[in-house]
Amino acid sequence: MTAPDNSSGSNATPRSTREAATLEFRGATKRYPGQEAAAVDGLSLTVPAGEILVLVGPSGCGKTTAMRMVNRMIEITEGDILLDERSVRDRAPAELRREIGYVIQQIGLFPHMTIADNVAVVPRLLGWERDRIDARVKELLELVSLGEGTGERYPSQLSGGQRQRVGVARALAADPPLMLMDEPFGAIDPINRERLQNEFLRLQGELRKTIVFVTHDIDEAIKMGDKIAVLRTGGRLAQYASPAELLMYPADEFIEDFVGADRALKRLALQRVRDIDLWRAATVRVGEPIEEARRKIADADIDMPLLVDEHGRPEGWLSERGMTGERVRAELRSRAEPTVELDDVLRDALADLIESEVHYSPVVDAEGCVAGVLSLEVISQTLQIPPDQVRTGPDLVAPGDEAVAGSEAPSR
Amino acid sequence: MSALALPLAQLEIRSRTGGTCVSEDGFCPGWIVDNLDRYVQPLLEHIYLTVISVAVGFAISFALALLAHRSGWLTAPVTALTSVLYTIPSIALFLILVPVTGLTALTAIIALVAYTQVFLFRNIINGLVNVPEETKDAARGMGLTDRQVLWRVEMPLAVPEILAGLRIATTSTVNLATLAFFAGAGGLGAQIFQDITFRSNVVVAGGLAILLAALFDLIFLGGQRVATPWRRAAAT
Q: What are the residue boundaries of the ABC transporter domain, all occurrences included (chain A) (predicted)?
């Protein structure tokens, strides 16, 4: 599978010109001499081009070993790994590695080189022209939201989050068709980790690289992965599935335990309000004929009329008294609170409902107009939908996260 | 044995008559100013011994360290050997070598080179070993060959420790070279020994040795500042 021109993304942005690669593990096995058990045992799976594979599992499950076999940092004992249908064993390790982006938890920036020189390492190895390298470095530092002047500084002058961004920029420098990332956000504090995860997902939305991402954190796996491979001790594949599938149909008790008791809630974190079938609301306006209002109620999924203003913004739930007489009157049973937005992640919306002690609440679009009603019932129905029919958004990056890039104070 | 006695002979460098500062073994600025040119030749010999010994010592220890770094197992035996060498009393070593290489600068240099190894080898190998594992892992993972990892990552990061080794080795060599006259190699030590009871002589010759050591140290310090801008950046 070469995927000739499937990505409008690579045409739209000059940043990524090379097509992502497909990656196939074919019975890949690692045995260390003198050890009974294999570190990785017959791992077979295929990662389509442009997707993020997350390798996750308890410590000692061989997830990092599996990742490091891809760029031959660890040699395969049996089986094979194919990059765009070509065995990695047929290629010289150093040359192979220059085509594969590499990010590790400790980042491993070169302390004696400036940030610009760090980013330029692989392009220099590949013998790029100086002008091309300079332009690429500038572009990449912008891409990962590092400000002007960062290029001349040294790694010791940056904060952990900034160093991590440099690590990603350095791995992307030669525009590799595949990236390996070993717990890249593991050493970052939780707040900045979330920020970096979101930034990275947005970046991936543009670049569409094939990525092997190693983590021990199931929440991170669910958030980052297009596909998740759960490994168990002894390096055996326990389950290979999409995040929704994994949460809905854990293959066995081990996966169930590993995914956690709150897997239903985790699954809600995969979807936005706009991704599910909401209740239709009966939206009525003051002065509207009662007959018309009653007809709307009959058509709606909820028999509680919702009073809206002239723009369609919710005012509150209409009481029985508001529905008496000829026309709708402004008699509210309760205010329309909380309101949920279409872009809210389902788990957050559920939290809002629970916190406000209501069973349902109006959903509004970006203009604030009523788009439907979200209820506890709707959410629980959503959890019944088979995972292959679960609609998830193109990304789960909250819009509010965008402005914060690079705002941490550098360490001194 | 008469050949050995020659460099140790006490020579007359001053008048011992009349109750002057000079005849009373005092510290006499006037005499010092008049006799400064006596110290030029010994000082040059001393510089020569130090520079050649440290340079040759560095070349040998650098090669040994590269070998040991690659092999892994050589480090411990070489470290042990350099320590043993260092425990040999310097005068003994000079005298052991004289029958082989004669009363020459070469004899002194061989011994001085041997004494530099303990500082140079240890610091070079430590500098290489102390490069963080993740830095090397990242380098290899990005596609640097072993040779590129060594010269572009490990060696530059080892520079501060290597220079620290050179500083100690040089200071130590300046010090030990004051005994090089036992091997017939001259130097400031010979000058001191020519009139060891005369305070002016001892102070000037000894002071020059101290100044020389300090000067070399300053040169290496300056070199370190120029060679490792990234370390200064870390401090700001």
A: 23-259
Contacts of B10 (CB under 8 A, 6+ apart): B193, B194, B195, B196
Element (H, E) at A267: helix A263-268
A144-172 confidence digits (pLDDT tens):
989 888 999 999 999 988 999 999 999 99
pLDDT at A34 exceeding the cut of 70:
yes
Cα distance from B229 to chain A (closest Cα, Å)? Answer: 8
Same domain for A69 and A113, yes or no, is yes
**CATH number assigned to the domain comprising residue A167:** 3.40.50.300
User: In angstroms, what separates the C-alpha of B201 from chain A's closest C-alpha?
Assistant: 47
* Shortest Cα–Cα distance, A204 to chain B (Å): 20
How far is Cα A63 from Cα A237, in angstroms, rounded to an integer? 10
- Write out the residue range of the structural domain in which residue B66 sits: 39-235
Name the amino acid, one letter, at A147.
Answer: G
In a domain, A400, yes or no: no
Decide if the complex's ipTM is over 0.95: no
B148 CB neighbours in chain A (<8 A) are: 125
Is the CB of B141 less than 8 angstroms away from the CB of A94?
A: no
**Dihedral sign computed on CA atoms, order A206, A73, A214, A25:** positive
Element (H, E) at B46: helix B40-71
Residues of chain A above pLDDT 70, percent: 90
CA distance A316 to A284: 10
Is residue B24 one of the residues assigned to a domain? no
Say whether B142 and A125 touch across the interface (CB within 8 A).
yes
pLDDT recorded at residue B217: 95
pLDDT the model gives residue A371: 92
Best to test chain A binding among B136, B142, B151, B159 (most A CBs inside 10 Å): B142
The verdict on A149 touching B (C-beta cutoff 8 Å) is no
Q: What is the pLDDT of residues A96-115, one digit of tens each?
A: 999 999 999 999 999 999 99
Distance from CA of B232 to the nearest CA of A (A): 10
On whether the CB atoms of residues A151 and A173 are closer than 8 A, the answer is no
User: Can you give the pLDDT at residue A398?
Assistant: 40
Q: Does residue B228 sit at the A interface (CB-CB below 8 Å)?
A: yes
The chain B residue lying nearest A104, using CA atoms, is B138
Is-contact A57 A63, C-beta < 8 A? yes
For A53, the domain range is 8-263
- Whether residue B214 is contained in a domain is answered as yes
Domain assignment present for residue A1? The answer is no
Q: Looking at residue B50, which CATH number applies to its domain?
A: 1.10.3720.10
Contact A104 B132 (CB under 8 A): no
Residues with pLDDT less than 50, chain B: 1-8
- In this structure, are A308 and A249 located in the same domain? no
Question: What is the number of structural domains in chain B?
Answer: 1
Does some domain include residue B49?
A: yes
Tens digits of residue pLDDT in A302-334: 988 999 998 999 999 998 888 888 888 888 888
